[in-house]
Amino acid sequence: METITIDNSGKLSPKDFSSNMDVKWCPGCGDYSILKQVQTVFPDLGVPKEQFVFISGIGCSSRFTYYMDTYGMHSIHGRAAAIASGVKTANPDLSVWVISGDGDSLSIGGNHFIHLMRKNFDINYLMFNNQIYSLTKGQYSPTSEKGKITKTSPYGSLEEPFNPTELALGAKASFVARTLDRDPKHMQAILKRAHQHKGTSFVEVYQNCPVFNDGAFFAFSDKETKKEEAIFLEHNRPLVFGKNDDKGIKLDGLTPVIVNLNEDKVSVNDLWIHDEKDKTKAFLISRFFDTMFDEVHFPRPFGVIYADERPVYEDNMTQQIESVREKKGKTPLNKILAGEKTWTIL
Amino acid sequence: MNTIQENLERSTQVKEVDKIVVRFSGDSGDGMQLTGMQFSDTAALFGNDLSTFPDYPSEIRAPIGTIAGVSGFQVHFGSTEIYTPGDQYDVLVAMNAAALKVDLPKLKRGGIIIANTQGFDAKNLTLANYPKDANPLEDGSLANYTVFKVDVTKHTKECLSSTGLSTKEIDRSKNMFVLGLLFWMFEKPLNYTINFIKEKFAKKPEIADANIKALTAGWNLGENTEIFTTRFVIAPAKLPSGTYRNITGNHATAIGLIAAAEMAGLPLFIGSYPITPATDILQELSKYKANGVKTFQAEDEIAGICSAIGASYVGNLAVTTTSGPGMSLKTEALGLATMLEIPLVVVDVQRGGPSTGLPTKTEQADLLMAMHGRHGEAPLPVIAASSPSDCFETIFEASRIALEHMTPVVFLSDGYIANGSEPWRFPTEDELSKINVSFLDKPNGDNNELQPYKRDEDFIRPWIIPGTQGLEHRIGGLEKQDVTGNVSYDPANHENMVRLRAKKVKRIQDYIPLAKPDSGNENAKLLVLGWGSTYGAIKTVVRDLLSEGYDVAHVHLRYINPFPKNLGELLHGYGRVLIPEMNSGQLIQLIRAKYLVPAIGYSKVQGQPFTTLEIKEKIIEILKA
User: Fold this and answer.
1) Where in the numbering of this chain does the Pyruvate:ferredoxin oxidoreductase core domain appear (chain B) (predicted)?
2) Per-domain residue ranges of chain A
3) Cβ B428–A341 below 8 Å, yes or no?
4) What is the pTM of this model?
């Protein structure tokens, strides 16, 4: 058990968030980076350490909870979202972080996932997506690409994968972002944004599994391919990508079109300007992913795809309690016990 | 005791009787449940003791007039103490032919039938599967009963013809007409129901007026015509003095939880998914927002218990309510709660199973699931309510045990007592005991270390809630190291932890009352050992038999895990032990295994509670053998 250190300086450091448990992920696992970025960012969030609560499910990702020196519960497979719902409803003051994986969130926990997005608690949801089941040693996951060869699909998986950001948007998430383990600065920025957003913040983190699915996302981080394969979104900025920032995306009606800024006589001014609050466009961006645009190869978007605040569940609950209390007043226990109609026997 | 039958044969006077059973029976859309409840509440307010039994199909509106659509409400009320809704009824209100067909078999010979004649037209008779051209109201087949034929539909229409309401709306008032007639027949006042109607239809005064008119017209039919020869008076019951209310088991469960939260000084959180017959509890609690009750209608049964685990983790009295199928879905999370060692109340309102089974009917078949239905070794306290009002005390106890012993607790009720009602001499706040809860606020170990799994002398670990400065720590489903709570795969530690968790539950024995006979003597020739909702039937029978000179006794168990400390000794004092259960014999397995008592089982698995006659005959059979 750790010793309790009282930090008198007031300012916490990343080390304050590191628990005394040995970290037991495989060497080279993307989870290390995510842990490091979370510990780096947390001191800057201005939240007292005891207010942080991590709730995780089951899987490699979900061991995360043990490594953070905050409150935390490593729960059961797929149910972190449901447990977090109760935590946040019962105590809205806590800063609640759900840690989950692609299988935990989208397969066994799929139902809780969509309802969490819909209900919109002010919590942060980090889904480590490695597109594989790792803790059970290599079976295809609901985000594995179709045809993937794994131990349970030796002749190729038959299933279309989920597109997590599109699913989250469809489930009415109020904040949807994507980042990746090999881009620490980007991840730190996204984590801060997720924290600042009031509402359920869904962050998909591409995470490399060096043992069972090595290199699944390298195209988005390797120097040679990154600028062609990834597009980094920024609010109010045009959608530009390409080796020399020479490509852009513009909208032709509702159809995204890739244009060459050098050749096509289009300037940056003609490009699609990213608006985080535009849900229709957020859907289009989230779909730079699957078959709809197969004939054109779009870069994978990273950054905040959508962010627009709406009332959160726990505030609605508090307000309802207050407004009913104002109207009806608290019923004294004796009155509840007696009910509406009583009679007395002498 | 006077019976209706004797009185009928004599005159048209007002007759006093001790107790009466009335069965309201009609189509699902005929409003029989509401009619029965209004009748019961009025009888209760008048001071009768009573017991009710709503008995309805799982279809909301099965095809009109069919046998599948018959909905019944039975009320047994009297001037003496009443513990069951009655084996058979004295009066059957049959709104249509199907209702008569379904419910006639349990009408006492010589009993009264009040039949709505329009419900016996050719179409209704066919729907009820009566042979062609046979009408029980006309063909003499009911000669052993007293039949009152009333054209309820026509009377209701006539009295509401000037209201301008549609035929459909008028038709829906006919249950009030019948209720008015029954009120006349049993000399009960109309005013309680009139006030109820006014409140219910406050925003639709024309509907309120129509219902009141129909109610009054029903009364007047009795008063002004000579069709009905006898009125019955049932004097108020000589119940212990005090202030009473009428209450169903589900409502008692709901307010028991509110009371427990208040006596523990904790917020109440309920995470549930609607399921028959438990839904009422969630519905009832959702009315208490002003009291800070947080009701969370979860996306599924699993989220119900998981959200409650989350709320418990941060310091609420957390509850999830369900019935059998939902219980199955919650078992994985129950394992987690057992491992976390946090308080949690799980309410299982049992129904006929397995699978969807008989969702609106009653059964006690989840006992062994409550005891053992988890992965790994995960003993939990299990306690069961015995009557509608007993749900209050029992859920309060469930909450106390959960909070004071840091454990999930399974509370068992069933459809019979959940929907049934009885008068209840309710307690006041001063009569309730405090529930002792404390949160750890500083390190509890040597060297200023936090030890989340350090136990007290009763093996209870501290409750440490997020938000407490300096006590940050991790818990989870992986096995814990003793004392520190760190993850541990050590073989000896696991065995030790399994034993410690079991000891914690067993130690609760020291905090529950000893078992004692409810009636009869210790060492009687035969003990009837019951649990749960069989209480009323067993109590009625054993008291009758005692007064007839039989050497019998009744012990009823609220605490099933752990059993009261003295139970073994108590059981061994009796000549024979009979265990009636609404399952194929579950408590009997536990009793035989634990105490090696050669108990005799008596099963009924029909979705219906035991009748007193069934239990009585069984007891006599054993005593005579």
Assistant:
1) 524-594
2) 14-221
3) no
4) 0.93
